Amino acid sequence: MYMIQYVIKALRPKKHMSISYITILSWSSCVQCFKCRSTFASAVCVRQLCSSSSEFTDGSYDGLYPGHIPTTPTQKALLAVGSGVAALQDPYRHDMVAVLGETTGHMALVNLRDRMRNDPEGYTILTERPRIRLSTLDLSKMASLPDGSFGREYLRFLEDNHVTPDSRADVKFVDNEELAYVMQRYREVHDLLHTLLGMPTNMLGEVAVKWFEAAQTGLPMCALGALLGPLRLNTSRLQTLFTSLGPWALQNGWQARCVLSIFYERRWEQSVEELRQELNIDPPPVIPSASKKRSTFASLLNHRHEARSTKPEA
């Protein structure tokens, strides 16, 4: 049995660059590098690489969809183990968490896809394939909505927690075009769930959302996060999780309507309270305080808004 060495190397994405793919190298299985087509051996390597965001925009690509990297079951298993180790060491390695979800979630994605197909609104989403990006959001309109509306509270969540929907990586390793979109939709809906559930992006808030997602989606990645996330909480937050937030998150994950079957882009003006009632989600028993961040996301939103307002009309 071959000794396998895992080399997990993160390259910090540069400006105007985006994550493109992950290569796998192994003693027992030589894998062709997707980009340079040269063959490597002697290690298992999970590497985050960068490429131009326009790499796949010309319509010429290998695979089932832009950015798709075909992999064998063995390669998927190696990716799952390597990314799982990295994600355990650092839960904020979203690139590794993304790979883990793609390589372990096939059956859960099939179930989610079927639930969406059986829901009129979910079927529309599968047909139209909307994306949640800064480029698709009307930030000025969302900012003008009244407090308590879903759009205004989502924008407030982005500002308060200094996050952006553009940080969600594109799907690479799901070997079905429709299931790949379901996974992409799940990722882009994640921050909307934070808004609906009233949870910040600190560790306690993330664990509570993962408990909800584990019960709601059945994705192994979510179950793993729900199981191991509490290990990073202090005694006080553990007590909050196990006595109030945890049971609430699990119960609502089980009882709620499929959260992927909601066309959130058409619900910005709806109140959070009304949307919760429609989805059968109860208000949280306690809301953890948001952790302070060093960066200011508001400046990014203002920059995007100014760029749009100064863009010359066609």
Automatic annotation (TrEMBL):
Highest rank taxon of the organism: Eukaryota
Keyword Zinc recorded: yes
EC assignment: 4.1.1.130
Pathway the protein contributes to: Cofactor biosynthesis; ubiquinone biosynthesis
Record key words, sorted: Lyase, Membrane, Metal-binding, Mitochondrion, Mitochondrion inner membrane, Ubiquinone biosynthesis, Zinc
Catalytic activity: a 4-hydroxy-3-methoxy-5-(all-trans-polyprenyl)benzoate + H(+) = a 2-methoxy-6-(all-trans-polyprenyl)phenol + CO2
Membrane protein topology class: Peripheral membrane protein
Keyword Mitochondrion found: yes
Binding site for Zn(2+): 190-191, 194, 206
Any one GO cellular component localisation term in the record: extrinsic component of mitochondrial inner membrane
One Pfam family, short name: Coq4
Location in or out of the cell: Mitochondrion inner membrane
Enzyme category, top tier: lyase
Stated family: Belongs to the COQ4 family.
The protein's role, per its UniProt record: Lyase that catalyzes the C1-decarboxylation of 4-hydroxy-3-methoxy-5-(all-trans-polyprenyl)benzoic acid into 2-methoxy-6-(all-trans-polyprenyl)phenol during ubiquinone biosynthesis.
Subunit structure: Component of a multi-subunit COQ enzyme complex, composed of at least COQ3, COQ4, COQ5, COQ6, COQ7 and COQ9.
Protein name according to UniProt: Ubiquinone biosynthesis protein COQ4 homolog, mitochondrial
Taxonomic lineage from the root: Eukaryota, Metazoa, Chordata, Craniata, Vertebrata
